[in-house]
User: Fold Ribonuclease P protein subunit p29 from Anthoscopus minutus.
Amino acid sequence: PQGTEEAKTFVHAFLKRSMPKMNDETIQDMLTRKAVVLEHYPKKKTKQKRKKTKGFTAKQRRELRLFEIEPEQQRYAIFLPLHELWKQYIRDLCHGLKPDAQPHVIQGKLLKADLHGAIVTVTKSKCPSYVGITGIILQEFKHIFKIITKEDKLKVVPKLNNVFSLELDGFISYIYGSKFLLRASERSAKKFKLKGTIDL
Assistant:
């Protein structure tokens, strides 16, 4: 290790080489009055903009027929396991549908739940031909339900002006489609208000 004098000599020589225009007195004055800060300017890193991965547009999805169910797949029996999974999902969501459970609490959870796999029935409608349609919900869109019936027929039922009922472990819930015009992903974040009377 260097001694004090050797260190002073080294620093003085270093400053002399680094700042040749300064005389010895100025250098000595800098050393006695303040610390010398050797500045380092790092190169600025250019941030690379992340490219956002763009999904398909609605038109592209229609052209690719992503949401269409093939005719050979339109069979009620194929989707019964999906219904069993849905029942277990709702039981877990509601911590078991016990007889002493409060109906409004269960109803609130069902309004935000995913309904793919639920068996629903159209109980009221402004169009009489929809009343009585029963089946498993295969797809839910903002304005419609796609339902497969026991007769292996795929029905497209609008939510507007229709009332749907679903039953699970003796608990029957009614869905007013006109107040349900949301996508499944949007419903999970929506706050539904309790209303005394609801029209079709």
In short: The domain at 58-189 is CATH 2.30.30.210 (SH3 type barrels.). Residues 74 and 153 are 7 Å apart (CA to CA). The mean pLDDT is 82.
